[in-house]
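stage 2 :: seqdesign
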């Protein structure tokens, strides 16, 4: 008898291992070449599958791929992306099909690069399905709600899907890595700088001790 015809009863405990509660999902905002770019800030949730690929990048990044809510390998993977308007990944490709479903807000799916770029906007429950070999990206374009994150679902074929960024996307990552970063002072150092600046202007840091001495002298 074929395995799928071998029907058996499942216990509730067995089936509950295949239930993912959205409120309990653990997302990741790192683990991909473009994760640190300001225009690419997003959180990815590995819900079903996403076993780490043997080589290259996992579509959800090295972090999220190690903690799927339902860790199975049954030919497909499912996850969510949460992002604010204007945010989304750089152009990339997968070794299997990738399908996007907008859940909340409006999302733009782009494909091709340069003069050949095309796009379509997706409203809630709209779907676009990308074949292997097409460079694609997605972005939250709900600009009327600038501070609100929205959700996109993605379904990716295979058991160990692999993501690869386009040469132009990798060049953007390398250029960002070379950009100088503003130096941030520690809280203690910043506090000392503020006190010094205030004292230099004859403010409280300088005058308060004098007032206290004057009060003690007058007692």
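stage 2 :: out
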């Amino acid at each position: 008898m074929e395995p799928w015809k071998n029907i058996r009863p499942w216990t509730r405990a067995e089936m509950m291992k295949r239930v993912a509660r959205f409120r309990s999902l653990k997302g990741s905002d790192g683990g991909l070449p473009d994760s640190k770019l300001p225009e690419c800030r997003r959180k990815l949730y590995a819900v079903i599958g996403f076993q780490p690929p043997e080589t290259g990048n996992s579509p959800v990044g090295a972090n999220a791929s190690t903690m799927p809510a339902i860790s199975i390998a049954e030919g497909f993977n499912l996850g969510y992306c949460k992002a604010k308007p204007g945010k989304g990944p750089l152009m990339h490709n997968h070794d299997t099909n990738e399908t996007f479903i907008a859940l909340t807000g409006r999302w733009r799916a782009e494909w091709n690069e340069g003069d050949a770029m095309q796009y379509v906007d997706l409203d809630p429950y709209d779907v676009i399905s990308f074949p292997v070999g097409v460079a694609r990206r997605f972005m939250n374009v709900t600009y009327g709600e600038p501070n609100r994150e929205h959700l996109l679902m993605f379904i990716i074929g295979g058991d160990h899907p692999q993501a690869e960024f386009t040469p132009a996307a990798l060049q953007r990552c390398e250029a960002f890595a070379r950009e100088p970063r503003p130096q941030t002072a520690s809280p203690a150092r910043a506090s000392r700088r503020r006190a010094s600046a205030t004292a230099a202007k004859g403010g409280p840091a300088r005058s308060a001790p004098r007032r206290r001495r004057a009060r003690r002298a007058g007692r």
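stage 3 :: structure notes
- The first strand starts at residue 43 and ends at 48.
- The beta strands are 43-48, 76-83, 92-94, 98-102, 107-111, 118-122, 127-130, 136-140, 150-157, 163-165.
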